[in-house]
Write a structure and sequence with these properties.
It is built from 3 helices and 20 strands. By secondary structure, it is of the alpha/beta class. It has a 7-stranded mixed β-sheet with strand order 3-6-9-14-17-19-20. The protein has a 5-stranded parallel β-sheet with strand order 2-5-8-13-16, covered by helices on one side. Strands 4-7-10-15-18 form a 5-stranded parallel β-sheet. The radius of gyration is 16 Å and the shape is globular. It starts with 6 loop residues before the first strand and ends with a strand.
Length: 178
């Protein structure tokens, strides 16, 4: 799965990992957002890594958790969904708006392969000091450069450079930020 090869999400090992993540997500989402200490403890158990001072607001959803790495001093707002069948790496000081969705899973275009239950996944990287506006969708395999701002509702299907303002569906750079 992490190598980008075909896999089945129904694999018993993956099902067990997903079930463990759901237990931790229920605990996280039942803990009030203002109870930072207990929330941080659950996030440390759930995620691959999380930097100090980073906040994740509930509700939050993910597949496994251990493929998600978030830098320090970040903010992930209410209602975000991160499908982490491959790595999701978010840099320091990132601001992620409400309802942002980050996907790593891909289903095959070929109908026969898709019906067989096979899928693949590609990593997503979000740089340092990036701001993702509310309800953005970040698609599999995308990298977003440092200091970039992505407008609300954008659907990011290609890499975005550093220091850019990008908006729309499909998301396009409309100007550089200095």
């Amino acid at each position: 799965m992490l190598a980008g090869d075909l896999y089945r999400s129904t694999d018993p090992e993956l099902q067990a990992a997903a079930a463990q993540a759901q237990i931790l997500l229920r605990r996280l989402n039942a803990t009030p957002n203002e109870d930072l200490g207990p929330r941080q403890a659950v996030l440390q158990a759930l995620l691959g890594s999380i930097g100090e001072l980073t906040q994740v607001k509930s509700p939050f959803s993910c597949d496994y958790g251990w493929n998600i790495h978030v830098g320090r001093n970040g903010f992930i707002n209410y209602g975000c969904t991160f499908l982490d069948c491959n790595s999701i790496r978010i840099g320091d000081d990132a601001q992620i708006g409400p309802g942002v969705q980050i996907y790593t899973a891909l289903h095959p275009l070929d109908a026969h392969t898709r019906r067989s239950g096979l899928e693949t996944a590609k990593p997503v990287t979000v740089g340092h000091n990036v701001w993702l506006g509310g309800s953005c969708v970040i698609c599999p395999g995308v990298s977003i450069g440092d200091n970039t701002v992505v407008g609300a509702g954008a659907v990011v299907v290609r890499d975005l450079p550093a220091n850019a303002l990008a908006v729309g569906n499909p998301c396009k750079v409309i100007r550089q930020l200095f």
